[in-house]
Amino acid sequence: MLAVWVEQLLGFATGALAAIREDERYPTLMAWARDEGPALVGGNLPLAQALAPELWSQTPLARLDFAAEPLARPGRNEPCWCDSGRKTKHCCGAVSLPGHVPSHLMWMLSLRDWKGDTLKAALASGLAPAQALLEAGLIAAESGQRGRAQQILESLFERADWQTLPEQAEPAFEILIDLYQERGFHRKREALLDAVLDRGPLFLRGVALERLCLMHLDNDDLDSARAAFVRAQQALPDSPTLAYIEAMLLLHEGHEEEAAERSRFWFRRLSRQGDLDPDQLQFLADLAENPGATLADQLLSAEEDLAEPLVALQALLESLPVAPRLEIHHHEGSGLEYHSTAREDTLFAAWQKVFKANVESEAPMGFDDDPWPHAGEWLPALCAHPEWLDAPAVVQSLALALASRFGSLPWMAPSLFEPLASRLERWLEQVRAEGEGPFPWDSADNAVLLRTGLALVVGMERGARARSRELAERLLTLDDQDSLGLRELVLDQLLREGRDRAALELSVRELDGEGDETPPLGLLMGRVLALYRLGRPDEAREALDEVRRHNAHVAAMLCAENPRPAGTGGDGIAEPGSRAEAWQYRTLMRDQWRSTPGALAWLQARLAD
């Protein structure tokens, strides 16, 4: 019965609103209620007459600057407010409504219908109830009206009194953040996150923290992510969200053991409080047992339609047979070459019928189209045809696709990237077994294996650092021209592992081989940091002087606590010597400078030299 009433109420209210908008006068509504209203409530005229005044009293009227014109509720012996001429007790007062009438219903429907200047003025009035804004915004988002949804939800979160926000505002907040991201309103996104963290209700702060940390982690800005976490820890010391965020952060920083230890700490602490629901408690227990696997499971379960095929893919990769041999040729003049076979071409053609996106031949990583909207087709097809993975071109496409979606998430490395790395490593062993010599990017089908290697190096960079570095080093021994730009990545990984002497040797060797070319900033700064860590400050100062000749911004950018971000062009490539180049280096490596005792203070002192 309740569902029937809700449907009837919504239909009746929609019709009543259309009648009201004709002239925004009460008699017009009552005439409609008597003539057309009964058909919308099962032919019940008394119900239609009783419901209409209730709705009128809460309807915003444009002629009153969006205030309502509520009717005085009459006494039992007074004339009924439906203008029937009878006493209330013999008219609407004798009617029992089948269910509740939300006090914000007519505002919500009005916000759903108004457009342009009228909608803008209604929102600016500040009279719309929070629940009406929430529901109208969600409806607009679900129907694909992104501009309307953003406009309405912005009004919801611009309210001075954050404490009046309904608890259902959490999905609206996340939708608005996503809309800002999709539509390129990055400053608005950051301002909303900051506002919620500063003064938002408790139930929203955890969500804002998660989004802020994820935003920084997606940008590889570990230092900003750590700062956001510390800030939230001070504001919300007992929030269960902190356990989840800290585990993510520590895994991104490469501290697997500390992530497990801190997860166990959070479980002990929060379980003693006794105010967690069973699902939260179980999640914390799972996190304490295995942070990486728990975060991976949570991610997959959040993928909705793709959860089942992604789990099937994990199972497939875990049970892959040994990779078949490739056709490798060794030419004295041009080096080593991989040539795809007819069988591999046939397997790849079958794969392309469902995968559809093509690898950009001139780019290190990328497709001509996003493959993930069609993942519901190609993931199950791949699991049904595991033999497709005998073709390196299929492994290349899969590795690139997985890296584009999961490459920044360290907990996905064991189940998605490491099995593919094992396959590629066997093929690279076959290449080297054919003899010494280069494996040039532009020879035969070599780029397929090299590009696959780059995707897997990126995919394992956070979650399997040592293996990522080892694969990168193996690729560099084959492609000595470094067509993939792996030298800086290897250097960064060596510094993260504390292998400072090896990092210094690599940086010196590579910089000596640069000739007249502009040296990569990562190699230059890596040499400075390695020298400082090795207790060679004079040499570090000389190396820093060379850095300044190439990029005058990087030292100040590293030392600043909250510098203004510097974006790159549309291709994502920063010009040598630019602030954008300095910003890219900061996001990748400031956490290493900060965690090195005295390094930032030493760098700050050099700014005055």
UniProtKB/TrEMBL annotation:
Superkingdom, natural source: Bacteria
Pfam short name (any one): SEC-C
InterPro entries cross-referenced by the UniProt entry: SEC_C_motif, TPR-like_helical_dom_sf
Gene3D superfamilies per the UniProt record, alphabetical: 3.10.450.50, Tetratricopeptide repeat domain (1.25.40.10)
Protein name as annotated: Zinc chelation protein SecC
Species for this entry: Halomonas aestuarii
